[in-house]
Design brief:
elongated; 2 helices; 82 residues; mainly alpha
């Protein structure tokens, strides 16, 4: 009985610790970036959290695509471009 309680408590703690990075990425990185973008594009305050996250996701996807060029892995001198 005490082992089950400790096991469930550790499982809950582990689940909470794993949710924190996901929350940080979605709320802070995507939502914050999207909020700033929508704030620049609109004169009023962007209140819709979903719109902020979507705008941030589009921004970071476009940035990653432009920065990485859409190619995966290292390129050597004889390799053809993607």
């Amino acid at each position: 009985m005490p082992g089950e309680i400790i096991g469930e408590g550790l499982a809950a703690l582990l689940r909470w610790l794993l949710q924190q990075p996901a929350w940080f990425v979605v709320e802070i990185v995507l939502g914050g970036t999207g909020y700033l973008i929508l704030r620049l594009l609109r004169s009023r305050r962007a209140e819709d959290g979903h719109a902020c996250v979507l705008a941030g996701l589009v921004f970071w996807a476009a940035t990653a695509s432009a920065w990485g060029g859409g190619c995966a892995g290292p390129q050597d001198d004889n390799a053809t471009a993607c």
